[in-house]
Write the structure tokens for this entry.
Amino acid sequence: MREKHGLTDTLRRVLEAGGERVCVGDIVEALRSRGFGPLILAPVLLVLLPTGAVPGEPTVMGGLIVLVAIQRVLGRRHPWLPRRLRAFGLERARFQRGVEWLRPYTERIDRYTDARLAWLTGDIGTRLSAAFCVVLASTIPPLDLVPFAAALPALAIALFALGLAVSDGLLVAIGYLGVPVVAWLLVTQVL
């Protein structure tokens, strides 16, 4: 059975990294050995937090998600990020406020997650989930034009990423339910 990693602990590790700003590179270094789930989850949280209302930020985070997830689809075990993306970040105080706001929720999530449906978080399951994260993240730029619409694919990606981060295949399975909803939103609101 895989070791379970809590989301609260993951966010604490991210906060411990870096200096005055929390950069993507800090997140990568803090979570490098923890896999792709936390590295996909970090930018997704920025889309779901109030910072996601800033025009263009969801699109940048969607690009980062694609960059990380496609590497897992292609079979990489450890993610690589270009220098420019590693330097992108937020002021520490702003990021910390978001993390503190999320803490009661992450602690609650940690209590209810478990290592279930392990085949969905194994090698093939992880690669398939990463492929769906790429597809969902690709819908974020056009949905960024509709206020708060990018939050829907971000929520589905968050379920995939959280499921992978805490080795809970049930969350991954629920993430798959978001795919047709995002497709419907894209067709009805953007196209």
